[in-house]
């Protein structure tokens, strides 16, 4: 710059001078033109030469300048006649925004007095950059603004003139905005910001743009301003849950007020457009709404009423999140609540059929009872085991789902155990397990399965001869463990022929109690012993009986004077009278001896 000006100036000055001199020789105003901001000392022109003055007389004639402006920008060299810059000239200071700027200078010379008018044109150089009055502009633009919408921006000013003033504007790279430059009537440039693409606050809430004003100087100067576009929210986003569907488990009988889940929806908008209220949608059943409490502010769901697994296993609900915008938007999600079973129901036990009393000879595997079991709980809590109390001759057999049969597993014997107390215990597999019990009493009916039993199998009864007829010899009672008629015994002598007589003529037995009596008086010298059987028979159907052998030994008394009898054969006779009936007895002594 510094090196270019002098040459440019010289040529320019000379052309201007020549033109003015030729056009107006009589009243001549000499024109010079210099660019502003020339260095002090720079020569504008040689006034002596241009005005036809003698260089040597300049000092003598007191050549001087009269500058209109207060400031003395120029000076004349009295030796050479050169007009030079005494102080830098700022065109913008001098002429502000005037498009042309002249400094009127009079050259005055004495002896004789002469005044020459000089018009010094101060030429603009591009020494000022465009400047924005506000370095920062803030704009609020609704995100619903449509492309093409324009927003005027404050323009930049450049104190230079002509081509050195603002020529154009540039906007920093932006996807959404562009600018349009317009020229005013006076040539000044205005700029509008234009939306070229839809805004989305949720994507970008602030656009930080830089507007640059460029002047037309060479080289060009520029100034910048920042434009902050704040995007104003419109309710264009519906609340969204993090998941479309939620699943949660709760255990039944949880205390009222227990926390279930906290749902959370997000709304990308801001302010009331993003404030969310939660509610059950219309699709959620009344029943479900009755059981659960939804906090409309924070989305928390809590238990409102006692949850019973046995009543309801799954609750489904639709939750709506609605923002508080002017035209509210909403989002939904599904919540499924599974109820987890707790072992809160006792197993149940029911005797469906039971047969008592039963005969003691009942066959093994006979079903005597049918029991059903149930438990309202589910899973392990609802699986039940049925047991009977102690080790008993019974067995439980599963007959069908939840049904058991109690069967005889071993032969029974009323005479050993006349009745059984059977306790059924049903237990579930929950932790801790719950149980129930039921007792039945099984009574056995007697069967004639026991024969009467004598205390001895062989009775030896000594009898002194000469006994009184009808005397009690012994009591041969037997015992029968059966009951009633099965126990009711009848005794009798098993009849046996002995030489024209029978045992019942000699002995009699009380059929009811087994007392044995002698019917006649025995004589040792005639009969020494008797051997016969006595039977005891119960009254069952069919009856059972048993017998014992009775050995009667007649014992001697000294009642005879000695006589001689045949050693081989001896027969004797006698009558025995009992209750008015007399029987005739004949004994063969050798037979008696043989028995
Ligand atoms: C805009 O961007 C400029 C530079 O990139 C930065 O200095 C300024 O802080 C930004 N302004 C805002 C409001 O973000
Ligand atoms: C709910 O319980 C089931 C089994 O009862 C289990 O498989 C599932 O993982 C549980 N879900 C949650 C969310 O705990
Ligand atoms: C009850 O019976 C089940 C089989 O039904 C068996 O596994 C269990 O051990 C029994 N419990 C008792 C206490 O006897
Ligand atoms: C039977 O149940 C009752 C209560 O119902 C209980 O007191 C008793 O101990 C139970 N008996 C057995 C053998 O479990
Ligand atoms: C037995 O009685 C019969 C007549 O009833 C008689 O003929 C017989 O001789 C008798 N026998 C003896 C051994 O007395
Ligand atoms: C006596 O009983 C036995 C069995 O105990 C039997 O064998 C016998 O025949 C019976 N005797 C009579 C005479 O009935």
UniProtKB/TrEMBL annotation:
GO biological process, alphabetically ordered: anatomical structure morphogenesis; homophilic cell adhesion via plasma membrane adhesion molecules
Presence of keyword Membrane: yes
Transmembrane segments: 12-34
Membrane topology per record: Single-pass membrane protein
Domain of life: Eukaryota
Matches recorded under PROSITE patterns: CADHERIN_1, CADHERIN_2
Pfam families with a match to the protein in the record: Cadherin (PF00028), Cadherin_2 (PF08266)
GO CC, any one term: plasma membrane
Subcellular location: Membrane
GO molecular function, one term: calcium ion binding
Positions of the Cadherin domain: 26-132, 133-241, 242-349, 350-454, 455-564
Record keywords: Calcium, Cell adhesion, Glycoprotein, Membrane, Repeat, Signal, Transmembrane, Transmembrane helix
Function, as annotated: Potential calcium-dependent cell-adhesion protein. May be involved in the establishment and maintenance of specific neuronal connections in the brain.
Name of protein: Si:ch73-233f7.6
Lineage, opening ranks: Eukaryota, Metazoa, Chordata, Craniata, Vertebrata
